[in-house]
Design brief:
This protein has 282 residues and is of the alpha+beta class. The protein has ten helices and 15 strands. The chain is globular, with a radius of gyration of 19 Å.
């Protein structure tokens, strides 16, 4: 069964039995199927009205679940979202960016999902809807393992919501890959600093592709708060700060290489924030 409803209530009705799978851009599901034909029931929410686009709602920013990476890259958002916009420009290739959605990247729950660390530094929540009602879950609680989330079988993600960050907050994103595009990241880092009168008032650091789930590095964040925001601030991050990570050896890199690269990229991202730079692929 394949259905492409145009309104949310219809979609939720199709999902109520818990037997259908939600798709939108389908940029993950088709590659994972390989040469096998897709079987089972699919509810395509790419045509559901109200699920696409980024907008301000009071003191929050709401990004609809079916917003594509290309749309995010072009969105008029505060500087704290620059890390997310840089990630959007570097995900897959242009074709993927024009089809792949932010909710798909999050719900796929890959340890190397490029969109997750930039959303973690925004303190993002996910909005989930079903016939039973709507709930919000913090992103770091929503993804509870590699390829695992708390999304119920009858639920669909409708939006990602963040409290509107301070206008003085700046962010940067770096990822390490074997090439610029169409690559699974070896290391991902995202950093946000709120600098007021030359002093770091808030600091947020997240790392992906180095553990089953992406992590905020709380210990390092606390050390940065109150520090003068000057070039070289990144050197305050130490290897011990990364003890919460558990990088693995695989075909792309060794665990030790990932740990060393994470330290280098975090220092670079922190210094980039102090200079007003936004990062990219290295």
């Amino acid at each position: 069964m394949y259905a492409r409803p145009s309104d949310l209530d219809h979609a939720l009705g199709l999902l109520a039995g818990g037997d259908a799978r939600v798709i939108a851009g389908a940029t993950d599901i088709f590659p994972s199927a390989g040469e096998r034909p897709l079987d089972g029931a699919y509810v395509d929410v790419s045509n559901v009205s109200g699920l696409c686009g980024a907008r301000f709602e009071g003191n929050a920013v709401r990004i609809g679940a079916t917003t594509t990476w290309g749309q995010i890259a072009m969105a008029d958002l505060p500087p704290a979202f620059d890390a997310l916009k840089v990630a959007a420009r570097d995900i897959g290739a242009v074709q993927i960016q024009n089809r792949g959605t932010i909710a798909g990247n999050v719900c796929n729950a890959s340890p190397a999902a490029d969109g997750v660390p930039p959303l973690l530094i925004l303190n993002a929540e996910v909005e989930l809807a079903s016939r039973r009602g709507t709930r919000r879950v913090a992103l770091d609680a929503f993804i509870n393992g590699a390829r695992s989330t708390v999304l119920a079988a009858d639920e669909v993600m409708t939006a990602i919501v963040t409290t509107l960050p301070s206008p003085t907050m700046r962010s940067a994103f770096f990822k390490l890959g074997a090439r610029r595009y169409l690559v699974i990241s070896i290391v991902i880092v995202a950093v946000a600093l709120d600098v007021v009168e030359g002093i770091v008032r808030d600091a947020r650091i997240a790392v992906g592709a180095c553990s089953p789930v992406a992590f905020r590095i709380w210990k390092a964040e606390r050390r940065l708060i109150g520090a003068p925001a000057r070039l070289g601030l990144g050197r305050s991050i130490e290897a011990e700060d990364l003890a919460v990570l558990s990088p693995i050896d695989d075909a792309r890199a060794t665990g030790n290489y990932r740990r060393d690269a994470t330290l280098t990229l975090l220092r670079r991202a922190i210094d980039a924030c102090t200079l007003g730079q936004t990062g990219g692929v290295v």
